[in-house]
Amino acid sequence: MHSAPAVRYPVPRPARAGRVLALMCLLPAIPFFHGWALGLSATALAAVGASWLLASAAVFGQWRSMHAGQLRWDGQAWWWLPDDAAQADEHAVSMALHLDLQSAVLVRLAGVPGRMRWRWLERGAAPARWNDLRRALCQRRAAPPAVPEPQP
Q1: What are the DSSP calls for the chain, one per residue?
Q2: CB 130 within 8 A of CB 123
Q3: Closest Cα partner for 71 from 126, 139, 140, 16?
Q4: Is-contact 45 59, C-beta < 8 A?
Q5: Given this model, what pLDDT does residue 86 score?
Q6: Mean pLDDT over all residues of the chain?
Q7: pLDDT tens figures, 1-25
Q8: Does the global pTM surpass 0.70?
Q9: Do 121 and 128 touch, CB atoms closer than 8 A?
Q10: Residue 142 has pLDDT above 50, yes or no
Q11: Using an 8 Å Cβ cutoff, are 60 and 87 in contact?
């Protein structure tokens, strides 16, 4: 079995994910304003509004912590290099493909300092290298050949 070709792929902060998260933060506003229209007490509205704002701030903070960087497949292993780091700060990561939508994939990076990260990779970041990236993600390691047991 041949190894997938080496590839370097840019991973920007996902703008589409930011828009989806913003929409998800706005959806809880519907019950808040519905409660206001029904005349809910000020205490109940304050509690709902405060929890909504805290949850939205946490989601926004999580999105802001998604640092841009580059993924590199060298034919044997995956490497992550944050955009704001020196080349020497590149470190090995393990990648797991969880969802493949043809023009976008959801992957889990383990080994990035600090924690495991989930990232959307999109064709638009580097269309010319997209197919190489997908081949590398789908690479199945061949099992080592079994050594036949001696026959008595």
Answers
A1: -PPPPPEEEEE---HHHHHHHHHHHHTTHHHHHHHHHHT--HHHHHHHHHHHHHHHHHHHHHHHT---EEEEE-SS-EEEEETTS-GGG-EEEEEEEEEE-SSEEEEEEE-STTS-EEEEEEGGG-GGGHHHHHHHHH--PPPPPPPPPPP-
A2: yes
A3: 126
A4: no
A5: 65
A6: 82
A7: 567 789 999 999 877 777 888 888 8
A8: no
A9: no
A10: no
A11: no
The residue type found at 40 is: L
66-110: pLDDT as tens digits: 788 999 999 889 998 888 776 667 888 998 999 999 999 999 988
Among residues 75, 83, 78, 65, the alpha carbon closest in space to that of 107 is found at 78
Q: Which two tokens stand for residue 56?
A: 């939205």
Beta bridge partner(s), residue 12: none
- What is the number of residues in the chain? 152
